[in-house]
Amino acid sequence: MTDTTIAPATKPLVLRTSIGKKYAMATSGIILVGFVIAHMIGNLKFFFGQKHFDEYAHFLRVVGAPVIPGHFALWGLRVVLLAAVSIHIWAAYMTTVQSKRARPMPYAHTDSIQASYASRTMRWGGIILLAFIVFHILDMTIGVAHAGTFKEGHVYANSVSGFQHPIVTLVYTFAMGALCLHLFHGVWSMFQTFGRGSGAREAMLRRLSATIAVVVCLGFLAMPWTIMFGGRP
Fold first, then answer.
1. Of the residues 7, 86, 158, 181, which has the fewest C-beta atoms closer than 10 A?
2. Do 185 and 212 form a contact (C-beta atoms < 8 A)?
3. CA distance 88 to 143
4. Which helix (H) or strand (E) holds 108?
């Protein structure tokens, strides 16, 4: 009798399939879109004045206290977001690899492929956003890349001192443009993955995806551009 040993699977069967990776990317995408929208709304609190904006930032650091120690909830959120970003990048990369393996010979005429500008730039947009996230943390969270005078815990003052520099605001604007394209195609792809983006709803869901992308982009840019042109509450 031959002894046959079955090697254990390195990951769940569903994640080894193309559709499983797409579901992983869509599910992690939902978490990230929710965070982006919440973050954008939080940034708009800048227009309520320094006291309100700093109090909001302080609330985020101590939320849950005294039931749980301060900063624990915030770090818990950061862990969830890091996991979602990691899964999203892994799923996107593996989906691309699988697609290339399934089509080893490239198309003879790539200009004939029907794809939107947003979908063709998803890969580069993702790389730009990843680089921007690192810069944003170094700029507004840690302060080591801050263009002005960084004061820990003083979110309003840090925003004003940073966005007074046109280069910083332009970097943020470029990143938000990439985010707009990424959101438009990403939200639309999520609808398709979960079977909601076809048929009579297609045009409506495309408009919804575009609306979410544009509103988020403009919402994020409202504060830096207001500051750069000297306006503030």
1. 7
2. no
3. 27
4. none
- How confident is the model over 19-71, as pLDDT tens digits? 888 899 999 999 999 999 999 999 999 999 999 999 999 999 888 888 888 78
Report how far Cα 210 is from the mean position of its chain's Cα atoms. 16
CA distances, 229 to each of 41, 79, 159, 163, 179 (Å): 21, 36, 13, 9, 23
66 upstream amide cis, omega within 30 of 0: yes
pTM of the model: 0.84
Nearest to 191 by CA among 3, 30, 5: 30
Please answer whether residues 187 and 213 qualify as being in contact, where contact means their C-beta atoms are separated by less than 8 angstroms.
yes
CB-based burial of residue 224 (10 Å sphere; 0-12 exposed, 13-18 middle, 19+ buried)?
A: buried
Distance CA 146, CA 148 (A): 6
d(CA 64, CA 17): 39
CB 154 within 8 A of CB 148: no
